[in-house]
Amino acid sequence: MYQINETIVALATPPGEGAIGVIRLSGKDAITIADKIFKGKKLANQPSHTIHFGKITDGTKDIDEVVASLYKAPKSYTGEDVVEISCHGSHYVLQQVIDLCTTNGAHIAKPGEFTQRAFLNGKMDLTQAEAVADLIASRSGAAHNAAMHNLRGGFSHELKEMREELIKFSALIELELDFSEEDVEFADRGQLYALLEQLTAVTQQLVQSFRLGNAIRNGVSVAIIGKPNAGKSTLLNALLNEERAIVSDIAGTTRDTIEETLNINGVLFRLIDTAGIREHSADVIENIGIQRSMETMKRADIVVYLFDVNTEGSTALDEQATKMQAEGIKYLLVANKTDLADAGRQQKENTIYISAKNKDNIRELKQRVYDMTVQGEIKQEGTIVTNARHYQALQEVLKSLLDIKAGMDNHLSGDLIALDIRRCLHYLGDITGQVTTEDKLDYIFSKFCIGK
Question: Is the same domain home to 209 and 226?
Fold first, then answer.
């Protein structure tokens, strides 16, 4: 990253042709640089949060008619002077304007540099900054809600409260060390233990929420598994309500995995249609597909085991279910081709009966898959951990809290308990950016898109 005192510029809208393209300038010279190329009102003399029509000119040549939005420090996204120039969305025009900005002293911004400056200037903490990237990348209602909760500071608030309570006791315990010869206690051990119980419960809840959070952020993987001609590709098409996979009566038509996404109740599900599983095949390509199906089954969040209700026997199903249970695979048995089944046929427990061809009970199947993976309605309020970095740090926080409690149970000295409290405070601060390093910041913000 460039030094924070440099003025940076980047295209803030997606590259390519469009009606509008927005170029963002931020830094101490942002307004000065804009005034050199913008012909209209002098921006330096205008109040903050105002919009002005004018032209971008290169000396004697007009480049474009634009609208300039002015935000003066510290009341801007980055906390610095910011000018956003809304141009026509021609790639040529946008590049010309960016070139004029760099000619007059601006540097091209690196990925995430605007948001990094917002963090460094105290406009947001690190969890909120990361939520900006999550919001941009959100592909479902649940991912959007989780990102907005963090962006508004919901997660930060919880961590701040935890940290402040621990700091109070840490200060008192460390004060005791200064009076160790007088054998006095400033920190109420009963209150500290009660606080540790409370913080442990909160941290455990946050750690456990990552399973759901990871699914919200990356999508729930659903492997559609079954024997050849069970109707897996037909089921995929029925779930998507479009003809995505080739359907044929010939066994082994699907040779490789096909992956598509489906939104169920605001959560993204990644549906994976696989090659049919059978014991022996003389086709080398089909055998490779079968092997990939087995690997997909083991990696999936849930397996939809589809079988032909008219041909697959109860014994074979029980064996398959036992095998999946032994391997710790979460699965759902789905009986297909009920439109061809004997109406008086006895139904198997914990099984959904469908006709993929006629789309019978497809809605019920979607709801069951949702309930088995998301486990009920996602709360609109409350923190769901979606970031792996936060999850790893919270695991360390939880370990530190348990160590503090164990130390108190074993009547360890105050200096040892204070060490464990400091470690806990370190990992809490690591999440919000109160404790961090330049290398870590560069890594985090390098994953952002350019212009944000």
Answer: no
Q: The domain spanning residue 339 has which CATH number?
A: 3.40.50.300
pLDDT, one tens digit for every residue, the chain (452 residues): 446 789 999 999 988 888 999 999 999 999 999 999 999 999 999 999 999 999 999 988 999 999 999 999 999 999 999 999 999 999 999 999 999 999 999 999 999 999 999 999 999 999 999 999 888 888 888 888 888 888 888 888 888 888 888 888 777 776 665 555 555 555 567 788 888 899 999 999 999 888 888 888 888 899 888 888 888 888 998 998 876 544 444 444 444 567 888 998 888 899 988 765 545 444 555 455 556 666 777 888 899 999 988 888 788 888 888 888 998 889 999 999 988 877 656 677 789 999 999 999 999 999 999 988 886 556 555 788 989 899 999 999 999 999 988 988 887 776 788 888 889 999 999 998 887 767 777 877 888 888 88
**Residues 69, 70, 75, 76, CA torsion sign:** positive
CA triplet 86, 92, 95: central angle to 5 degrees?
A: 65
For residue 14, say if its preceding peptide bond is cis, omega within 30 degrees of 0.
Answer: no
Domain CATH code at residue 168 = 1.20.120.430
Question: Is 136 found in the same domain as 73?
Answer: no
Q: What's the CA gap between 101 and 4, in Å, rounded?
A: 17
273 lies in the same domain as 416 = no
Same domain (yes/no): 253, 395: no
For residues 448 and 112, the answer to whether their CB atoms sit within 8 Å is yes
Q: Please state whether the predicted TM-score (pTM) of the whole model is above 0.70.
A: yes
